[in-house]
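A further point concerns the way the authors explain their paired sequence and structure data. For illustration, here is how one protein appears when written out as sequence plus C-alpha cells:
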Amino acid sequence: MSESSISEEEWTDLDEDGDTIVITTKCLFCDYVFDRPEKALDHCQETHQFDIHMIQAKYNLDCFSFIKMVNYIRKQKISAKFVANTSSAVPWSSDEYLQPVIQDDGMLQFDIEDSNKKCATNIESNKEAGCDGEAEICSTEQRLKLAEQRAQEAELALQRVMKDLHKSREVARQLIMSTTAEPQPMVPCFPIGAGASMSDDEDEDYFSGYGHFGIHLEMLQDKARTDSYRDAILGNPDLFKDKIVLDVGCGTGILSMFAAQAGASQVIAIDQSDVVYQAMDIVRENGLENKITLIKGKVEFAELPVEKVDIIISEWMGYFLLFESMLDTVLFARDKWLNKTNGVVLPNKCRINLVAIDDGNLYQSNIGYWDNVYGFKMSCMKKEVVKEASTHNIVNEDSIISEPVLLKEIDTEKCTVKELDFYSEFVLKIVRDGSITALVGYFDVQFSSGCTNQVILATSPFDTATHWKQTIFHLDKPIQVTSGEELKCSASVKKNRKDPRSLIVTLTVNGQSRTYNMH
C-alpha cells in the first residue's frame, strides 16, 4: 500500500515502514475490544446506555477533559450510570488522569471536538433537507439540552417557592406572636430546619468545609468518636442484620461500611460535600458497592431508592452538641423515611451539661491579656472577645469549682426541631472556695435504642479528649464564691436567625447575663 493511497484519517495507523498498525480500543465498561473507538462508543451506547454525545453536552467535554474522563473510568472501574449521574463537579478534573491507563489506548485517539462538529453539521444538513431535527442524527443531544434547560428552570422555580413559603411562615409566626398575651421566653426556631431554610449559596461554605480531607482525618483519628460508633454498630449485629440503613452526612463512608460489616442488607449514604466522590472510591475499594449506595445532595431534597429505612445513623454533633444544626437534617430524614413502628436512630439520647471553672491562667490569656499589650491598653477588646464562645482542648479537672449540671436532654427518636431552641433554669452548686471565671459546656450521646451492647460517647473534662473539645463561656468579671453556695442560673440556646447553623447562647449567673455567639 502506497502512502498516497491512504486517506488522511488513516495516516496515524502506519508504522515507520508504512505498514498498517491495528490499534485496538477496549470498551470503557466491559472487556469487549474493537478496531476503532467509534465502534467501541457505539457499543457503549447500545450495551451500557452510555451516549458520548449526551455526556459531552452535559460536561462540555473538550479533547483534554475527554482524555481525563476516559482514564478516570478505566482507573476507577466505574459504571456508565455513575458517569451519567455525577454532579457538575466532575471527579476526573485532576491532571493525573492525563496519564493513560492502557498503553496505546485507541479510545484516546477519538476526537470528541471533531465528532461534535460533525454532529452539528448533520443537524444543519437535516434542517436544510426539511428533516425533523428531533428525529434525526444527534436528536438525543438536542433533547438532553432541552431537558437540562427545563430542569434548571424547574429548580429555580422550586427555590423561589421555598423562599416564598419560608417568608409566609415567618409572617404567620409574627402575626401569631403579636396577638399572644404573654411574652415567650424563646425566639421560635426555623420550622423546616436549618438545612432546608438555607439556599445552596448560603450553605455552600458549610459543605465546602467538609470537602477538605483534613477535617475527615481529624474525625477518623478521634478514637473516642470512631471507636464509639464502631462498637455501637459492630457490637449489635442482631440490630443491623438484614436491615436497611440510612447514613446521614456520610463523609468518607466509615459508618456505612461498619453497618454493612454488621450485616445490613442495604446502606444508603448521603452527603452534600465533594468528599462523597472519595467515599464512592472507598466503597468500591472495599468491595461494598453492591451493599452501599451513595447519593450526593442535600438530604432535604434527596430521593431515596426505598420508601422506608429501619435505622438512621449519623455523626451530626457539633461543638456544644447543637452547633452547625445538623440534627435538624437528621430529624427531617427520620420524619420522612424512618419506619414508624420499630425504626431506630443512633445515637438516640443526648445531653448538654455545664460546669463552672476557676482558671485564672485561661482567663488571663483570653481576657486579661488586653489590659496590657506590649505596654498599650486595649481593654475595649475585652467585651468583644467575651462575646465569642471558644473551644479548649480539655479543661483542667483541678479548675472545676462546681458540680456538673444537666442543661438539656434530647431524644433523637422523639424530639422536634422546635425543641432544639430551649430555655433552662438551673442551680450551680459550688464545691470549693474560689472565683468563677467561666462556664464550660460539653455533651454526651448514648447508643441504646435496640442495642444489647450500649455505648456512651462523652466529651466532658473527665473523659478522653475528643475533637469536639469543650466550649468555654468566659464571664466579664470573675465571681467570688464559697463552698456550698448555690447560684441561681439560666440558659437560653437558639439558632442565629441570620445564620441558622450558628448559635446564640445567653447565660445568666447570679444575676449577671452575657450573650455569646457560636459561629
